[in-house]
């Protein structure tokens, strides 16, 4: 089950950007990913049998004209934060993340505005956070 909420009332875009075009970050095209507005939260129920969450994070190239914008990516399991990125700038790909999920039943993918020093800033923005190749892997699978 998927639940998505955004302070700017923008939908979740699976496998394409807000214009229906391929997701591009730093000039690289990604076939698979989730794109949504900053200050949004995408919540997913975790089916049994899965042991980890994997994704690469970044900010969509369509926001490259706003170089001052930065995004912080957060992952919560059952409401507890387990990952927080550094500030990721437009047209930049952040790190690959690999998070063990243990016995968690819910994962939340969160993207928030960031001030230059990494402080949370709760303003409305047009920045688009992207979780590229986001996937759960079963206990018996190795991440790709």
- The topology string of helices and strands comes to EEEEEEEEEEEE
Q: Count of DSSP E strands?
A: 12
Mind telling me which CATH architecture this is? Sandwich
The CATH topology is: Jelly Rolls
Q: Sketch the major β-sheet.
A: 5 strands, antiparallel
- How many structurally independent domains? 1
Strand content: over 45%
CATH class: Mainly Beta
How many helix segments? 0
Structural class: mainly beta
Runs with pLDDT <50, length 5+?
A: 116-124
CA distance, first residue to last residue: 24 Å
CATH superfamily name?
A: NPCBM/NEW2 domain
The largest sheet has its strands arranged as: 1-6-11-8-9
* Tertiary shape: globular
What is the mean pLDDT? 80
Q: What's the arrangement of secondary structure elements?
A:
Layout: E1 2-6, E2 13-14, E3 23-25, E4 28-30, E5 33-37, E6 40-45, E7 50-59, E8 71-77, E9 80-84, E10 93-100, E11 106-113, E12 128-138
Antiparallel strand pairs: 1-6, 2-5, 3-4, 5-12, 6-11, 7-10, 7-12, 8-9, 8-11
């Amino acid at each position: 089950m998927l639940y998505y909420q955004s302070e700017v009332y923008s939908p979740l875009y699976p496998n394409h950007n807000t214009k229906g075009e391929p997701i591009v970050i730093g000039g690289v095209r990604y076939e698979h990913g989730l794109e949504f507005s900053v200050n949004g939260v995408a919540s997913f129920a975790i089916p049994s049998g899965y042991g980890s969450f994997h994704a690469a994070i970044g900010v969509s190239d369509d926001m490259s004209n706003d170089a001052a914008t930065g995004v912080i990516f957060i992952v919560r399991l059952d409401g507890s934060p387990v990952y927080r990125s550094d500030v990721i700038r437009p047209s930049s790909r952040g790190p690959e993340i690999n998070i063990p999920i243990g016995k968690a039943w819910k994962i939340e993918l969160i993207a928030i505005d960031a001030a230059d020093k990494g402080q949370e800033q709760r303003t409305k923005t047009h920045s688009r956070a992207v979780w590229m190749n986001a996937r759960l892997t079963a206990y018996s699978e190795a991440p790709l």
